[in-house]
Amino acid sequence: MYLELLREGHEVRVYIGDPDAADTCLGLVPIVPDWQAELAWVADGIIVFETAHHGALQDDLRRRGYRVIGGSALGDRLECDREFGQATLRQAGMQTAAVHTFVDFAEAAAFVRRAPRRYVLKLNGAGFASSRTYIGQRDDGRDLLSLLTWHSTRWPVQPSFVLMEHRSGVEVGVGAYFNGQAFLRPACLDWEHKRFFPGDLGELTGEMGTVATYRQSDRLFDATLARLAPILAASGYVGYINLNTIVNADGVWPLELTCRFGYPGYAVLRPLQTVRWSALFTRLCSRDSLALPTRPGYSVAVVLTVPPFPHSLGYASMGKGLPIDVSLLDADDQDHLFWGEVAFVDGQLVTSGQVGYVGVVTGCAERVEDAVRAAYRRAENVTIPMVRYRNDIGQAFMSRDRERLIELGWLGHG
């Protein structure tokens, strides 16, 4: 995103608050040590936040006259306070699965013994890795009971967390940009691949790849995310927001909100958007139009990683500083590269940062099958020692989920 703005001729300055990530984008974008010292410089520009814990600060900056894209204090709470998020969705007219909040693993275990069933364990707050989430596998909850006991012996201070009743079906997200008053249209639909290994095995990573489209989204958007427009407007929310759901024969079940730019969400959408980030940011801040020009078809994103991703322990010796070679890609291919934890050091692009999330490659085509092929052709031509990525992004959508959503009336043929 920042590299594109620089290529267009815009001035960009980046602040990185996490010291472990301080070398991310080193040598690629101007990095500043104190963002507040840059407020006079950015007075007539735009400030972009990428976190889920600076919403109150964003609200304050807007009150002071700055143009800010990212979220709001309400957005932070919708994402990080899971029971509040579900209650808000329910008040907006959506059906939700029951959610139970705890601050003690033993109390949660006692609850599961009283009400045995399949649950999903999710921590509240913005500072926890996705791998902390656990999707229960057994209908009697016995696996979750064992995990809760394990957790109780390893947390010196137990966190706030929820147990959400599990729902089976097709997992699909719906997302859109909000300009402080209304949503830009169209919204997008996305199908995430959250586990590390092909076949949905291994730990939850946040996301290893995604299929997305801006077409045929109206029905699901109107039934879900659109209903949040009044509360978002009241909070001054400006930015992207995504609602992850389960769709089955009983309808749509909202799972959780992402109230910020997501990864690789921003990357998978870029090839489908026919306006540059600068034009989109201007549209969000000026509120001069609710139209988002987009391409038909699908975009497919594949996340490239190096060891020990998705964990950070040992990264300095295992995967950091590895050379990256993209010489096999032509100019069009390189427009489908979206870098994450990389730096430019002594004339060489290398891995950097804190966990080994190197970046994202995308493919875009009218047919999802062609988009998948394009994405993997590009991934195969990015040369990084020990590079790792899933080789089945889009397979579940093509073989199963698309037809199921058509049967349920949420997608049309084509």
What does the average pLDDT come to?
A: 96
Figure out the total of helices: 14
CATH architecture assignment name of the domain at 98-165: 2-Layer Sandwich
CATH topology of the domain at 98-165: Dna Ligase, domain 1
Strand content: 25-35%
Distance between the ends: 31 Å
Low-pLDDT stretches = none
Secondary structure: number of strands: 18
* CATH hierarchy, class of the domain at 98-165: Alpha Beta
Shape: globular
Specify the biggest β-sheet. Answer: 8 strands, antiparallel
Spatial strand sequence of the major β-sheet: 13-12-9-10-11-14-18-15
Gyration radius, in Å = 21 Å
Judged by helices, strands and strand pairing, the structural class is: alpha+beta
What is the percent of helical residues?
25-40%
Please tell me about this protein's structure.
With 414 residues, the protein is α+β, with helices and mostly antiparallel strands. The chain has a domain at 98-165: Dna Ligase, domain 1, CATH 3.30.1490. Helices cover 28% and strands 26% of the residues. It is built from 14 helices and 18 strands. The strands form five sheets. It has an eight-stranded antiparallel beta sheet. Strands 5-8-6-7 form a four-stranded antiparallel beta sheet, with helices on both faces. The protein has a two-stranded parallel ribbon with strand order 1-2. Helix 2 (55-63) packs antiparallel against helix 3 and helix 3 (73-80) crosses helix 4. The longest helix has 13 residues, at 368-380. The two termini are 31 Å apart.
